[in-house]
Q: What sequence folds into this?
């Protein structure tokens, strides 16, 4: 006779990443969002006039740098070992 196993074959609800990974991802999302917020603006009131504000260092250097740092943080969060404390 064959013995029946009493184990339950229900799939476990596990997250793909650990808690630490999700926290790091949240930090990366904040960096990306701040970068895009800093890039916004610079419009002129009239389409016939040119606004020099679009070439400010905040929009040219700071904002894209923050977005790239945020993307780097996202890559790190994906590759980080979730078991490490």
A:
């Amino acid at each position: 006779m064959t013995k029946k196993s009493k184990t339950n074959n229900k799939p476990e609800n596990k997250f793909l990443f650990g808690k630490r990974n999700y926290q790091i991802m949240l930090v990366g999302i904040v960096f990306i969002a701040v970068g895009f917020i800093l890039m916004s603006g610079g419009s002129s009131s009239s389409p016939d006039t040119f606004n020099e504000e679009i070439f400010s260092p905040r929009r040219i250097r700071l904002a894209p740098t923050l977005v790239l740092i945020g993307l780097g943080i996202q890559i790190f969060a994906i590759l980080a070992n979730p078991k490490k404390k």
Summary: The chain has two helices and no strands. The CA atoms of residues 3 and 69 lie 57 Å apart.
